[in-house]
Recover the amino acids of this structure.
């Protein structure tokens, strides 16, 4: 009993002090094993899924693939996703074990992904490649794409670099991003960089310009009508973002950026600084999966200060550590979308080759 308690404490420390997702996952799996939760992941019944119907649909998909019946496979796939997507999105599936959910979720998603790629790679009677491509594009539009929203929070917003780096290292960073306040700066820094530049950004955060804040004195602030020097913020933005338009950033990186902007009104009632500071630290943004900045009272004195290099490393580590427990759910919840991306890319390439062959001039 004493040995088990010591082992648990060691594993908990490893979990909290992990330097990467692989270390975290190893400790999480060991703790799940101690708690008997790996057995839950292997259970046939969970009470949260319609297991018998899911297995029936998986069997029908396999039967269609074995017989090359792409038309029927499409119908079964549509019916099965319509029936099961809601229960697969249940966050309770990911609160039992630390290291992941019940294996049936992965098996079902395997069947869906395999079926999508089978439809992509095999002929459908009387359906051209162009028509099949449009079918996939229409289906993807209905299904939707993952998007990442980064909230504000002044200096706390640097935490988003850790969140996005954790996603990027697992190839899970969405191509669609939105941001507000400091979240907009981080989102902009990511969406203006291509893959090579993004690797440099995440691997060398020490190159980030950190000095966004320069607070004016009382007299100067009253005369100017604002408390912070906009020239310092502009320098910060210029260094980290450069001067590119939304379109130019998209064409360079392939990522879509959305930034919310509040218009300035001449008759707008000024708000006290304490109210503005509270607003920055209490913003509420909710999505299907939420990653929250860990509340630490000792950090709130830093919220309106330029971070030191040590602060930068600390915020990034906090962001990564908060993301790792959510990665299993994020991987599962984005699998179908990522399968759409692969299928559409293959069909676009196939159509391009067909078009080139048709327009080639014979010698």
């Amino acid at each position: 009993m004493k040995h088990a308690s010591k082992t648990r404490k060691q594993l908990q420390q490893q979990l909290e002090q992990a330097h990467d997702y692989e270390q975290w996952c190893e400790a999480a799996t060991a703790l799940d094993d101690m708690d008997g939760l790996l057995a839950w992941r292997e259970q046939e019944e969970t009470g949260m899924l319609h297991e018998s119907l899911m297995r029936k649909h998986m069997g029908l998909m396999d039967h269609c693939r074995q017989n090359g019946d792409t038309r029927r496979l499409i119908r079964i796939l549509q019916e099965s996703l319509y029936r099961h997507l809601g229960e697969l999105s249940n966050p309770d599936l990911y609160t039992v074990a630390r290291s992941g959910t019940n294996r049936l979720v992965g098996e079902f998603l395997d069947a869906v992904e395999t079926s999508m790629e089978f439809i992509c790679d095999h002929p459908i009677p009387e359906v051209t490649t162009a028509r099949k491509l449009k079918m996939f594009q229409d289906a993807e539009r209905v299904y939707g794409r993952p998007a990442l929203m980064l909230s504000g929070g002044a200096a706390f917003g640097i935490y988003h670099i850790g969140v996005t780096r954790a996603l990027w290292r697992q190839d899970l960073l969405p191509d669609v991003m939105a941001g507000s306040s400091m979240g907009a700066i981080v989102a902009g820094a990511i969406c203006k960089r291509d893959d090579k530049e993004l690797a440099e950004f995440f691997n060398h955060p020490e190159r980030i310009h950190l000095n966004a804040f320069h607070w004016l004195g009382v007299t100067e602030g009253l005369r100017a009508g604002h408390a912070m020097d906009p020239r310092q913020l502009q320098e910060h933005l210029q260094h980290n973002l450069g001067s590119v338009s939304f379109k130019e950033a998209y064409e360079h990186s392939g990522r879509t950026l959305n930034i919310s902007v509040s218009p300035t009104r001449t008759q707008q009632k000024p708000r006290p600084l304490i109210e503005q500071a509270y607003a920055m630290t209490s913003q509420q943004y909710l999505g299907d999966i939420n990653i929250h900045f860990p509340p630490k009272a000792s950090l709130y004195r830093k919220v309106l200060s330029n971070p030191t290099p040590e602060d930068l490393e600390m915020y990034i580590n906090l962001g990564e550590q908060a993301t790792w427990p959510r990665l299993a759910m994020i991987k599962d919840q984005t699998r179908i979308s990522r399968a759409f991306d692969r299928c559409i890319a293959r069909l676009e390439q196939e159509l391009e080759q067909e078009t080139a062959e048709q327009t080639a001039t014979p010698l």
